[in-house]
């Protein structure tokens, strides 16, 4: 299969083909999602929650993100691999942003990075882009700033915050970002951004009027159970399937029916 590039995504927006994006943090999952022909795999800092069990995305380190990213890259033949630069590795310091982006690209073999924020991180975005590293933006609910927001509720519901979001999207487009994720904002606003901006807008909890959708794979597969926002559609209940399989195994071990003669040397 032909590799997806940042240019393929722009082509998809131009021809009205919706972009599919999911998270991946490891080799085995990346192989499955890539075989299904997912367009973009995001090595999200949601690994902090999903893989490590932290309450927020803040604790995950650059080294840990690089470990996840390199594992995903080895599992992918087609998808574009985008990696979150983690909290504390780019905000307020463009030199540090550049160093972090270069480490991710060199050490993991990923194809692009993602950073949260608009005007506040413009210098960092521009410096990373100047090194030839493609940057995906992320606006709306930006979990790395959760302690500033205080809650995970819908963002940009009122006029001034909505206006700032559109302004930030324009800034990121002008900087040269190849796409922007918008998280948990009213669908009317998301659609407006997608129309006002020429680069692809990829939504999570942002309605159907955008250029693509992203979800956390473990959520859509039902591996996680506790997280139940309105925007999440579960396509499977893997946690039940996995638990039942393990219960069967335990039963067989206890009953000495596993391993059988055929399963032994
Ligand atoms: O880390 C993540 O999973 C993300 C997506 C939800 C966009 O940033
Ligand atoms: Na993220």
UniProtKB/TrEMBL annotation:
It is found in: Cytoplasm. Mg(2+) binds at residues 45, 84, 116. Its cofactor is Mg(2+). Its main location: cytoplasm. Keywords: Cytoplasm, Magnesium, Metal-binding, Methyltransferase, Pantothenate biosynthesis, Transferase. Binds 1 Mg(2+) ion per subunit. 3-methyl-2-oxobutanoate binds at residues 45-46, 84, 114. Homodecamer; pentamer of dimers. This is 3-methyl-2-oxobutanoate hydroxymethyltransferase.
